[in-house]
């Protein structure tokens, strides 16, 4: 894994999430409540960038998550409970509308196969929205109270919904678990986990497998019977991403970036490098060919090339 380019103008910020738009725009959500958009270009095998836009979505918290809705719109959620629609034109980007279903943090938003949006919150709710592209608006169609602090959510390839949660008793959040729900959001089963925190920690592999991380292990789960197939011990892992069919990339809380090979339900470490100045690696996305992009709490956004 070789570093080929970096954006480091915001080293005083924590970058929490990145996505890639149209192969040439990087969108980053930061702890100052801003969404930053950069245009990336390549000339004579040299990368360069310029700031395309900056949009403020909250004054009292961090940007927790960002997703692409269509070629002209993204959604960004905030620590103060908002979900915001941002429109991206050829020359600029700007806020157009938003909803605020709660005063608690919205930790993750995903787009479901049916086009609806689902958001998981610290207040124990799953919020489901209908997105109207013509009116550029969100309409809440359902709120489901689970009585869990919802950290990470993922729609599996078998259409089940997986959510990592902290259960709650009368005084505080306690046992962490991975919960599976059917299309009607009825609980199917749950698997106890050692621990879980915010981050991209659920990744579907195919119709029969889900990868999860509990902070101490990467866990392979059989989606047919919701059983644990295997565990791979790794400390302080914060995020992982399926780069190729058999290659898993990950980042930990002290800046390390990992490359694993998946073979016969086993995970084998192939490479490790410190890429974010001993700070938390908070995002990994695919770029072009063998390239990928990471972001971290050191404020850096880095393009890497995975050389075999």
How would you characterize this protein structure?
By secondary structure, this protein is mostly beta strands. It is 0% helix and 64% strand. The protein has a single domain, classed as YVTN repeat-like/Quinoprotein amine dehydrogenase (Methylamine Dehydrogenase, Chain H). The chain has strands spanning 2-7, 15-21, 25-30, 34-43, 46-56, 63-70, 73-78, 83-88, 93-99, 106-111, 117-121, 125-132, 137-145, 148-155, 161-168, 173-181, 187-193, 202-206, 209-213, 217-222, 227-233, 237-244, 247-252, 256-263, 266-274, 281-286, 291-296, 301-305. A four-stranded antiparallel β-sheet has the order 1-28-27-26, with no helix packed on it. Strands 2-3-4-5 form a four-stranded antiparallel β-sheet, with no helix packed on it. Strand 8 and strand 9 form a beta hairpin.
SSE layout:
Layout: E1 2-7, E2 15-21, E3 25-30, E4 34-43, E5 46-56, E6 63-70, E7 73-78, E8 83-88, E9 93-99, E10 106-111, E11 117-121, E12 125-132, E13 137-145, E14 148-155, E15 161-168, E16 173-181, E17 187-193, E18 202-206, E19 209-213, E20 217-222, E21 227-233, E22 237-244, E23 247-252, E24 256-263, E25 266-274, E26 281-286, E27 291-296, E28 301-305
Antiparallel strand pairs: 1-28, 2-3, 3-4, 4-5, 6-7, 7-8, 8-9, 10-11, 11-12, 12-13, 14-15, 15-16, 16-17, 18-19, 19-20, 20-21, 22-23, 23-24, 24-25, 26-27, 27-28
